[in-house]
Amino acid sequence: MVCGIVGLVFSFFLWFVGLPTAVVGLVLAIIGKKKLSEVGATSGMATAGLVTSIIALSLSIIVTIACIACFSAIGSGVTACAEFADLADFY
User: Fold this and answer.
1) Distances from the Cα of 7 to the Cαs of 10, 31, 33, 70, in angstroms?
2) How many domains is the chain partitioned into structurally?
3) What is the per-residue pLDDT across 28-61, written as a single tens digit (0 to 9) for each?
4) Which of these, 45, 5, 54, lies nearest to 27 by C-alpha position?
5) pTM reported for the whole predicted model
């Protein structure tokens, strides 16, 4: 559950840290649920870890896509400005 919470917090600010943390939390939560079901114990904490890891993973993916889109838009704008500057020098 801790990895899911840490991934959730970092998915907003440091998405490149939140993504692997969420994946590790997801794997550990699945392993924990399997081991607890074999023993017959309650798996409330493992379920909470699974849910927080899934939310952190989806947020990290959304933020990653948004960052890629923003960097792409910035790159396109810089290219357009450079082309406009070349045209202005031509006239």
Assistant:
1) 5, 18, 19, 22
2) 1
3) 999 999 998 888 888 889 899 999 999 999 998 9
4) 54
5) 0.76
SS3 of the chain? CHHHHHHHHHHHHCHHHHHHHHHHHHHHHHHHHHHHHHHCCCCHHHHHHHHHHHHHHHHHHHHHHHHHHHHHHHHHHHHHHHHHHHHHHHC
Tokens found for residue 82: 């450079």
- Reported as a single tens digit per residue, the pLDDT across 15-31 is 788 889 999 999 999 99
